[in-house]
Amino acid sequence: MNPLQSLLKATNLTKVYSGRVEEVVVFRDLHLEVARGEMVAIVGTSGAGKSTLLHLLGGLDRVTSGSIQISTQEGEFDLVKNSELDLARFRNRQIGFVFQFHHLLPEFSALENVMMPLLINGSPKREAEGRAAALLERVGLASRANHRPGELSGGERQRVALARALISKPLLLLADEPTGNLDEHTGEAVHSLIRQLQIEEQLTAIIVTHNERLASTCDRILRLENGKLNEF
Predict the structure, then answer these.
(1) Cα separation, 207 vs 224, whole angstroms
(2) Which of 8, 53, 172, 183 is least surrounded by Cβ atoms within 10 Å, i.e. has the fewest?
(3) For the segment 41-59, what is each residue's pLDDT rounded down to a tens digit?
(4) Which CATH number goes with the domain that contains 187?
(5) How many domains does the chain have?
(6) What is the pLDDT, as a whole number, of residue 45?
């Protein structure tokens, strides 16, 4: 892969958990490179380390060893070497997350939930509200903007979570089983929406999923097995 086209590069990635009796090696010397604008699916059995890998790539967890670099207009950002504060700032501006469970704040409306990352970044309320409303319209929820999460269906909550993930116009979208808590029909609709927005926004995206049929719609499929990533 041409280095100029690469957005994310993980090299010699190792994650080890220290247990009371023995160490648990999730993976060792793992390599991953993702091109700009590419949508990559990571599949594998439960317990293979897919979520752990995604958390490392998003700076939610720390590696045991190795490097993770993301290319920005300002240069390379190293997720391993930077401080927790710099990492948190970078994560909030440049990485969008969608999880299996939406993690919406129950006391706030859909609009307020989507606005939250911009407000945390110090954006003016009117600007945040305008972008949030536009995103809710794009995911088909303009009429539900003032509803709280408890008043929304599972698919609607995931669409709100997707809008929230995109509000800061991130370089990278990370989704961990985003359709895993939904029925088949709703799950396919949410996945199609993610793919559509990924293309429209020219996002780089990494999706962890058990659903290999949905994974087949991505640009590449990688299987995490026995601590190794294999393309197929």
Answers:
(1) 13
(2) 183
(3) 999 888 778 889 999 999 8
(4) 3.40.50.300
(5) 1
(6) 81
